[in-house]
Amino acid sequence: MIKENETIEEFLAQHAADVEDAVRKAAAQEIMPRWRRLADHEVDRKSGPHDLVTDADRQAELYLTEALLALLPGSVVVGEEAVHANPASYEGIRGEAPVWIIDPVDGTRQFVHGDTGFCTLVALALGGVVHASWTFAPVHEELATAVRGQGAFLDGVRLHAGSPDPGSDLRVATSHPDFTTDDQKRSLLGLWTDGVAPRSCGSAGLEYLAVARGESDATAFCWEAAWDHAAGLLLVEEAGGTHLTRAGEPFRITGGNDLPFTAARDEATARRVTGLLSAGA
Question: Is the entire prediction scored with pTM above 0.90?
Fold first, then answer.
């Protein structure tokens, strides 16, 4: 647990570099040696043919779980693979202890296919508020970090999301049709209009990074799994962007959101996207 009278900000000031080191080591030891070298028996399916898990996911999450719990005794971990094995462990997000939220390989489908579009996501939250995040794209050796109130950075350079160019089509990454309900598909159809250029998303973590660095204008996602969103939402916020649900409220990692929701470079873009999503519903 955070030491008595020590704030989470003080913990991060002392140990943020240690978290970064753990993320890099997990990728170096458990993920990259398996990239483009996966055997058939190292790949499994979870909920369906497009929901994949590999030995890299499992082993990287185990590595990070051990390392992060050692850094912050009394904390808990909510990791994608652990929750798949024990769904009740997701309740750690709503508990009173600091929680590490981990997606060991975000973009597993891309990883399995040998593509470069995957990353490792780690966020530290307390009381439903994300305080720090790490987004690591190991193929490109790019690390994006954010600490609440202290800005967002990519390899040490501050990120500024900025605003879309006036008159240009909004570039919006949306939930893949394979993972949306009929109602959500109708809502997303609101984006198929003049002035918007929607496309199916890849790795959620990398889509958030694209918004934070101004390479994409917004996202429109239809699912709540905190490991996909926690790190990226803080990254976008600290780069000057914002996030809103279809109800016009900030996305809550603890759940109960009116979906779809958006993360965008600025508030005007977020409100434009949520308005279109509501119109399509």
Answer: yes
Helix (H, G, I), strand (E, B) or coil at 158: strand
Q: How many residues does the chain have?
A: 281
The SS3 of residue 31 is helix
272 in helix, strand or coil?
helix
Alpha helices of the chain — where are they, by DSSP H? 8-26, 55-71, 80-85, 108-112, 182-188, 204-212, 226-238, 267-280
Which strands form 142-147's sheet, in the order they lie side by side? 76-79, 99-106, 119-126, 129-137, 142-147, 151-154, 157-158
**pLDDT tens-digit profile of 15-56?**
999 999 999 999 999 999 999 998 878 787 766 555 678 999
* CA pair distance 110, 176, nearest whole angstrom: 13
Over residues 131-158, the pLDDT tens digits come to 999 999 999 999 999 999 999 999 999 9
For the chain, how long is the longest CA-to-CA vector?
Answer: 55
